[in-house]
Amino acid sequence: MRTVGVVVNPIAGMGGRVGLKGTDGNVEAARERGAEQRAPDRARDALVALRERAPDTEILAYGGEMGAEEAREAGFDPEVVGEPDSDETAAADTKDAVRAFVDRGVDLILFVGGDGTATDVATELDEVDSDVPVLGVPAGVKVYSSVFAVRPEAAGRVAATFEDTESREVNDIDEEAYRGGEVRTRLRGVVEVPVAEDLQSAKQVHAGSTEALAEAVAEEVELGVTYVLGPGGTLGDVADALGVDGSPLGVDVYRDGELVVRDGSEAEILDTLGDENVIFVSPIGGQGFVFGRGNHQISPAVVEQSEVRVLASPRKLDETGVLRVDTGDEAVDESLRGWTKVRTGRFERRMMKVV
After folding, report:
1. Distances from the Cα of 16 to the Cαs of 231, 265, 296, 311, in angstroms?
2. Would you say 242 and 278 are in contact if contact means Cβ atoms under 8 Å apart?
3. What is the value of pTM for the model shown?
4. Which residues, in sequence order, are CB contacts of 152 under 8 Å at separation 6+?
5. For residue range 213-228, what is the model confidence (pLDDT) as tens digits?
6. How far apart are CA 219 and CA 214, in angstroms?
7. SS3 readout for 252-282
């Protein structure tokens, strides 16, 4: 029987749809903008998948919404190893949970959050000199480290079935620089992670020139159509070609020659949509995510009202392999899966599979 320690960062990802690009230090700002929790739901999805495949798994969990509640809702009877010190959970709670899991000899630490949570887990494992394997359930705004499963359900399956582990990197981003349009990453740790196909790769920052592609896209925009421009360098080139000052790491809305929203939240984007809407997005290099990583503002509600067009350089597609979606809405994800035509140049397109 396998023993799994579960810890959830309940505020992870709250800043995504409201345009904060991260929640570290911005919980109150996120709440003021109407942000809702997403980590508990994703924790339950992972734990339900784990229980379906390995119902006899012994679960140790941190108290309250940091793991115990979600484990019970998934059908487990967890052993609670500690409780948060206050209603406002903190990195110290995650670290306390990790230390308790190591002391009790768990076979795997299943954590729910983003790169910041992964950093807390890796830092504590290094502090106690432990090589207990870990696996991340993606719930944060930034999920660039290679220690996460591609989806919550995949994390549950991997936790139930893995047989071997390998070393992978934990990287985190400076959120203040990120909000200002600059990506600064640094290695925060190396941990053991289950070997599985359903784990994401680390983000690759550079993936080929897209200037000709961007110019072609800009030439073909139509009056009266609302265009939602996702984050990243490829869409930054499109904004430049359109002659507007886009937000490199935010989501912008363009219509009839001007930005009607710059660095918008989900609510702001929804308010500006018209009768005909087009979303331009580019997959994250190395990972292949089109939705669900760094662009939560483009929510299922936005996708349902829009046509999706994917843009990428050939090099990025070569390095990515397949495209992935993780919007948090299974029906929307299913509508996006299958083969899609990705524009790679002024005239060139390539068929890619969305999984």
Report:
1. 12, 8, 5, 22
2. no
3. 0.65
4. 42, 43, 45, 46, 49, 137, 138, 139
5. 898 899 999 999 999 9
6. 9
7. EEEECCEEEECCCCHHHHHHHCCCCEEEEEC
